[in-house]
Structures are given as structure tokens and as C-alpha cells.
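Sample entry (126 residues):
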Amino acid sequence: MTRCIICRKMIKLRNVNGRNKTEINKRGENMIMDKDTVGRMADIAHMYISEEEKSRISTELSFLLECFDKLNQVDTEGVIPTIHPITDRNILREDVVWESLPIEEVLKNSPDKDNRFFRVPRIIEE
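Predicted structure, serialized as C-alpha cells:
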């Protein structure tokens, strides 16, 4: 028995051809992630993984593949696909146009102005 680091469930493996592997799924596909495959994936990703890590990762990935296969076996005939899990519509208020303050009133407390604009000190050197 081995514990999955993701879901913390115990995983039971069976011995196939002298190596520990997960069960073969009901469709007959071999959903096995062995140490060699994990090693090849690590090579492609240019990562070094120790033999102990390869063993642990292969066990956990095999368990995940098994879980995904269980999901694939669920009868979804007649189930409408979910495009997005949140069904809320726009919860924001509608835009309302109103008169804003006159430019003169906005600029009257400004220490420095130039026509209709605030003047501020330069902060970026050329």
C-alpha cells in the first residue's frame, strides 16, 4: 500500500510481470505510468529525478490515471456539457450617465494648473 500525496488515499497495487503496476482499466487499455515513462518525461523536461522519486511519482500518476478512467466510465448520455461552472449573470449595476463637476470647480483647489489640466512635477527624466 502506498499513500497518494494529492488525495492522501491509500493505493493498492498489484504485481504484473514482476513489477508493481495498477490494474488494467475495463476498456483493456493499460493505464500504467511506470518508472521508465516518468524517467522519459523528466528527460524531456530536462529535470533530474532520483529513482525513489520516479517510483513515487509513477505510483501517484498511475493512481490519477485510474481515477480519470473511472470518470471516463461514467454514463454522461443526455447530460448537457458545462461550459462554465458559474451561472451568475452580470451582477454589476447598469451604467448611469450624470452631470459631472464643472472643470473650474475641479481645478479651483489645484496648486498648479494649465487651462483644463492639472500640472504635476516631472518624475521621469529624459
